[in-house]
Fold these 2 entries.
Entry 1:
Amino acid sequence: AQSVTQLGSHVSVSEGALVLLRCNYSSSVPPYLFWYVQYPNQGLQLLLKYTSAATLVKGINGFEAEFKKSETSFHLTKPSAHMSDAAEYFCAVSVPSGGYQKVTFGTGTKLQVIP
Amino acid sequence: DAGVTQSPTHLIKTRGQQVTLRCSPKSGHDTVSWYQQALGQGPQFIFQYYEEEERQRGNFPDRFSGHQYPNYSSELNVNALLLGDSALYLCASSLMLGPGNYYEQYFGPGTRLTVT
């Protein structure tokens, strides 16, 4: 069975500082990996995805993530935080299951951006 | 191009009642998945519908059931509501590209269910 661990349920950064949100996964088969963002009272928006192509993945709003198989990690980064980045971020893993994809989400990390 | 839509936006029900939530997938999508997101938690997979049949199911009791119509829209039904069913229910649609192939899910805004 696959699983996702997001380290730190709350992360605070200053505006303009580096954003680093951590995600480690467990999977017995090569996974697909995703980062989603959720603003208050809204659904999930896909930030970026890893589907076994390039290990460094660039997404929307200046975010990127690097797939490191040896560390089973898929950490999300952004060089300079903006106030609009304040939201909750979810890491997810997807693996083949009975011919379909089974998606498992982490518990989320709330990002606070301090002016 | 309309994205994934869900109705209603908010719903308040009493313990023991039944509820039906609705989802219209993104244009061109044929697969609908439902997730439950409790407060402070990540989304938990409930089930997935493709070709009007339930294809996958997460660890949810039989009180949770669903349906998919020929136009690909879907319903989530929950019977005998419990206080613990209070959550944001998210619908995600995708295009099935064949067994084992990656498909991207697009999420709707969710339905906030409160059980009192």
Entry 2:
Amino acid sequence: GAVVSQHPSRVICKSGTSVKIECRSLDFQATTMFWYRQFPKQSLMLMATSNEGSKATYEQGVEKDKFLINHASLTLSTLTVTSAHPEDSSFYICSARDAERGAAYEQYFGPGTRLTVT
Amino acid sequence: AQSVSQHNHHVILSEAASLELGCNYSYGGTVNLFWYVQYPGQHLQLLLKYFSGDPLVKGIKGFEAEFIKSKFSFNLRKPSVQWSDTAEYFCAVNAAGGYNKLIFGAGTRLAVHP
């Protein structure tokens, strides 16, 4: 149980275009989802916290107009990188929290999406 | 602000050697503590977690961690590592009592040689 999927796993796009990444909780309802960014050989940096039905909370330094997050249902959150630039190339990881399970604060991680902007 | 520091960025061991990875956090209140592992090419998996109770926590694959509140530490241990333990290990913390974000340490890359 507690599986989180991401789609696509890899995406290459041209500079100036937008890319949407999906994060789904497959066997539980995720009231809260998180989006992280991981640079090579570095740790995960939280970008934003997404609560179903409300606006995302962005971390300091993250441009909310560039990284659009939508959490329209209890099993799906999307991250759209708008007007992507090469510096946006990174590994994007989502996680989901299931408040109904015993471990209320445990997050389940998706496999990540490798974005390359050319 | 909360922060997590992992002392060892890169550890190299031979099989059967003992492992201890350090993790210290800074936060004055009650915390939940986690160790995650990321095997090459795979996603993050939870190794173990501490919420409350016995400060010695046992996780999967023979790993354990000890929460020492006075030292703000949550070190990860394994008495005898295997080649398959080669991975990156992340310590993480969040403040208890709410749906708060996870703060990750920088990670420790472990290489186990047969």
